[in-house]
Amino acid sequence: MLFDNERVTDLRPHLPSPLREVSDDRFGRHGVRLLLKRDDLIHPEVIGNKWRKLAPNLERAAGGTLLTFGGAYSNHLRATAAAGRLLGLPTVGVVRGDELAGRPLNPSLARCAADGMRLHFVDRSTYRRKTVPEVLEAIVESVGAPDAYVVPEGGSNAAAVRGCRALGEELRRRTDVVVLACGTGGTLAGLAAGLAPGQRALGIPVLRGGFLEDGIQALQEDAFGGRRGEWTLDERFHFGGYARVTPGLEAFAADFEQRHGVPVERLYVAKSLYGLVTLVEEGAFPRGTTVTAVITGRPFPSE
Asked: Which of 124, 140, 258, 288 is 20 to 30 A removed from 2 (C-alpha atoms)?
């Protein structure tokens, strides 16, 4: 096993991640109990759901080059680059936006480069078609890594989904509803499969488009042969799309941090927590319900 090797002790996770109850009057006055699942504490560099999705893919990469995809502020790219450094594994990040090539790197991409990731910028049209076999083949050839192990954008594939099933298993019989932010949907697909009958998962997509349900369904079919667990999505809380943070969302996140002493990552976690508070105030959960918010990541230092 990859993580049994003493050489990679620094990549070993702290599992299961902590689960703790917090007191919040916005929940208490509706008779709803709030738990926080601190997946942000799994590992100091390969954080939260990124560790859960990357670990099985790192096993499969078997020491070869790992190639993956992301935008200019991708948490997935940063986590992959950090894992590559810790394992001594070559990594290539295919970045959306050829206009970024030649410019000074933003702090997120600079961190990837400092961790040894080779960055390859492609135009947005090519990036949109990256899953087309001939386009992917051309990208792999252009970076000079014909034998690279390819991980999709966000790290969501069948192996990653099966890795995230443990998150649901850690929450069995501990909660009624689990709420988390969704980008590509791989974490939700695995989490829902790991929950016990009677529990349900609620995903808060951080991108606009209304396309995620089909993607999650497809991921579960690839990983498990069909739909697993009870899960739904609420599409209302993307705040205009990925990487959009309004002053209202910023104020909400800062207030949550002050209330509970938990660092709130703005692009994903803040939106899921905002959605959860809104749903509670709308009366979406009967009195006596226990809800768990998954803290999937933490703020990057520049956020």
From this structure: 140
- In terms of domains, do 69 and 102 share one? yes
The CA distances from residue 284 to 3, 75, 180, 265, 287, in Å, are 42, 31, 16, 25, 10
- CA–CA dist 52, 47 (Å, integer): 9
Helices (H), the chain: 25-28, 49-61, 75-87, 107-114, 124-128, 133-142, 158-170, 186-194, 212-224, 247-260, 269-281
Residues of the chain by 3-state class (helix, strand, coil), percent to 5: 45, 15, 40
Look at residue 193 and tell me if it is in a domain. Answer: yes
Q: Are residues 24 and 62 in the same domain?
A: no
pLDDT of residue 90: 95
Cis peptide before 18 (omega within 30 of 0): no
Instruction: State whether 269 and 192 are in the same domain.
Output: yes
Shared-domain flag, residues 142 and 192: no
pLDDT tens column, 111-138: 999 999 999 999 999 999 999 999 999 9
145 pLDDT band, cuts 50/70/90, is: confident
Residues 250 and 181 in one domain: yes
Domain that holds residue 283: 2-45+156-294
